[in-house]
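ok here's Deaminase, seq below lol
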Amino acid sequence: MADFVYFVGSSLDGYIAQDNGGLDWLERFNDVEGLGESYKAFEAGVGCVVMGGETYEWIRAHQPGAWPYTVPCWVFTHHELGTDDGADVVLVRGDVVTFEDELRRDAGEKDVYIVGGGALAGEFLAAELIDRIVLTIVPVALGGGVPLFGGTPLGVPAGFTLEGLTERSGTVELRYARA
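and the structure came out like this:
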């Protein structure tokens, strides 16, 4: 059965993007040896992606051309959004739990990749749907922006254990799994 996985990069102070959605602070670490390989290995096991409307619009604005995902993409949004021609994108409204079975079915034997944003990831976490978290912390403090889990107040997410960590040129990849 498909796992729900939040694979994400974060600043030292827990932000995944600047207030304006900017990721230039994170993109500076794209060349750290091993980070790209870690993502590519993860991506090969993805059968479906989910994201919020702002993340979807950011991707469309900042990565013009062909849609970057070849698997079905579900966009949770409260707004009217357009879709790219030829992309397998489903726009939905509602609680993440409502769509759990459909997302698992779309992913098949592979994983459901929670791309972001933080608020959507927080909804999945609060609903206890996240099975694994792969969190890469980069040595940057933003001082504000989009929180890792949106406004969801959390301590240590209940029921998760650290499975492993990898340090690469000042970045740390932490891998958690639901116990």
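fwiw Helices lie at 24-27, 35-44, 53-62, 100-107, 118-126. kinda neat tbh
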